[in-house]
Amino acid sequence: MIKIEKITTPTVQQIAWDIRHEVFVIGQNCPKEIEYEFEEESIHFIAYFNNEPAGTTRIRQTENGYKLERFAVLEKFRGNGIGSALVAFLLNETIPFGKKIYLHAQLTAAPLYAKHNFKPEGENFWEADIEHVKMVYSKP
Hints:
This protein is α+β, with helices and mostly antiparallel strands. 28% of the residues lie in helices and 40% in strands.
């Protein structure tokens, strides 16, 4: 069972940062200084799978709208729909409608976001030595 909630305590925030550290800094070799930008201005969420911390994400408001960021699911929990549940949660319950919603997707994750009505926009680009594409949400 997947449960997602807004992070409201420093203890849970640290668990989310530990997940991101494992997925991005260790697993994908992303530099720490890039991984932990914009923490204070972001709203953070954690996903539990059978009551175990399994994934995390965050959103933040930018001059371009709401940016969904840092989707991370621990390797042992992948394939259980946690990433998709996080995307759906943010779209259905968190982000006010009427604002632009976008993200920078790693190319390998772009099909997941496409299933939630995100469309590629512009040229591919590189962040932390990983190819990305900007994707913008369009209401179905």
